[in-house]
Specification:
This protein has helices at residues 16-24, 76-88, 107-120, 132-140, 153-174, 182-196, 203-212, 246-251, 285-293, 311-321, 361-365, 392-405, 426-430; strands spanning 3-8, 29-32, 41-45, 48-52, 65-68, 73-74, 96-99, 103-104, 200-201, 217-220, 260-266, 269-271, 305-307, 325-329, 339-347, 353-354, 368-375, 409-413, 421-422. It is α/β, with parallel strands linked by helices. It has a ten-stranded mixed beta sheet, sandwiched between helices. Strands 16-15-17 form a three-stranded antiparallel beta sheet. A hairpin with a 7-residue loop joins β18 and β19 (421-422). The chain starts with a strand and ends with a helix. 48% of the residues are buried. Bound molecules: guanosine-5'-diphosphate. Guanosine-5'-diphosphate (GDP) is lined by residues 8, 13-18, 39-42, 44, 298, 329-330, 332-333, 413-416, 420.
Amino acid sequence: MPATVIVGAQWGDEGKGKIVDLLARHSDVVCRYQGGPNAGHTIIRDGETFALHHIPSGILYPGTTCVIGAGCVVDPRLLVREIDDLEARGVSSRDLKLSGNAHLIMPWHVAIDSATERHLGRLQIGTTRRGIGPAYADKVARIGIRVQDVLDPKILRQKFETALAEKNVILERVHCVEPLELAALAEEMEAYAARLRPYVADTSLLVDRALKEGRRVLLEGAQGTLLDVDHGTYPFVTSSNPVAAAAATGIGIGPTRIDQVIGVAKAYVTRVGEGPFPTEIEGPDQARVRELGAEYGTTTGRERRCGWLDLVGLRFAVRVNGMTSLALTKLDVLSEFEEIPVCVRYRLRDGAETSDFPAHQSDFHSASPVYETLPGWREPLDAVEDIEGLPAPARRYVEFVEREAEVEVNLIGTGAERERVLMPRGLEALAGRA
Ligand code: GDP
């Protein structure tokens, strides 16, 4: 801290929620800087499970300001539902702030997302069909509707009508699906707009002021580095920039304000949806990892593909994020395996081996993993309370990751509950205050 970014170091679902939650307790402001409601953080608190999609996990701490930044896209229906759900469980949304520059996901974005995926058939990207990609596309095409438009019902109505007229043509003529009905939808959106109005704020200014006052700001990324639209495994990526640098643009602060970048990686790897995945496990061990790690999507319930730890990908994530430390989650999931393969290099089509992530897509698509096999520990990590208590092979596994990825591991996840973490150098080191 004061400004710490938490970023996924793989293809998302690394268990960022737990680390964000841990650091949120010591933060004054917690911000989301990109993405939409496909990113579900799961936080287990006192046996109660909170699946958050839009709202930063800081919301669970009274007095913590929670920001949804300009780089995000917001579905008003889902956000209002999320606010209502939290309120119903006694969690106040009073300190939620919504950037006026964030873009809104409209019903046509959802309709177009589904229609497009269906048309692509075998070539589909595997989106969550929540309209996130189409909303970002409209933002870049400069025809999007923004959160600040909810402040003026007349402007909102005008933009809504103009956009829907065009989108209905696309829905009918291109995708051959039913058009959306203006009057009912506009009325529904106006009701949501009224609900969201109190949360709209100048969040760039808010974060700047907080930093000037020496308050601690946490910037949480959704998805992960390999899903970054510019640096990930395009086209099987998300439509925004999860990488740490995007925290600055997504909030509206300068990059020099960021002090610390914590990457989060699982002790193995998962991937949702389509796309190349060099370390995907062959045989029954894949299902074993999935079961042990409960690897099913938070938002969609979809099965995640499971693979062994990919250090080539992790080195890349350390590089493109300027990672200052790493949180290695779900080490406990590997406890049952006698031997644990770890990918240290890729072998390319011409037989050459590389420890750097291939810059060209075709090289990545045809890369095969070169594994080093580390001994497993074959004992549960339930009772482990500190790093010294880890079985020696588990400790060696962590040290191997540190050495190979050239980054300090400052947090190790040993179980699903939020207290199940080890911090070898203490919370102070993790929070960048050591
Ligand atoms: P996120 O999107 O990166 O926050 O990841 P998810 O929310 O999809 O995954 C988090 C899930 O992993 C939650 O159910 C957590 O309780 C669980 N989890 C997080 N850390 C650990 C860990 O160290 N061990 C185990 N077994 N589960 C963990």
